[in-house]
Design goal:
Oligomer: single chain
Mean pLDDT: 88
Helix content: 10-25%
CATH architecture: Roll
Radius of gyration: 14 Å
Number of strands: 7
Bound molecules: FE2/S2 (inorganic) cluster
Shape: globular
Largest sheet: 5 strands, mixed
Low-confidence stretches: 99-106
Distance between the termini: 42 Å
């Protein structure tokens, strides 16, 4: 769910595009962050902790806490709350590959 358009907002709502989150196509608008688009699509869990596998998502939403780390086009540890969404990007929960390597080494 998105808020109603506000006068002077930085998001342009007329030219929507999509990017991939795991197996889903997510709609975003120019000026919107990855986190904004995911929250609007009712996705709140962005990753899980390495050892306890506890869900993590948005906390500060201003780039300070590093709770919202995601993998963007193969680049790890991008903060979803300050990274602009772009057409065709592939976003995945952070730590999936690292977790698999860790489990394989046990
Ligand atoms: S939610 Fe805190 S850095 Fe993104």
């Amino acid at each position: 769910m998105r808020l109603e358009e506000l006068r002077g907002e930085r998001v342009t709502r007329s030219d929507g595009f999509t990017f991939r989150w795991d197996e889903q196509e997510i709609t975003a608008y120019p000026g919107e962050t990855i986190l904004g688009a995911l929250i609007a699509s009712d996705i709140h869990t962005l990753r899980s902790t390495r050892f306890e596998h506890e869900p993590r998502g948005m906390l500060c939403a201003i780039g300070v806490c590093y709770e919202c780390l995601v993998n963007v086009d193969g680049k790890p540890n991008r903060r979803a709350c300050v990274t602009p969404a772009a057409p065709g990007m592939i976003v995945r929960p952070e730590g999936q590959d690292e977790e698999m390597r860790y489990d394989a080494a046990e």
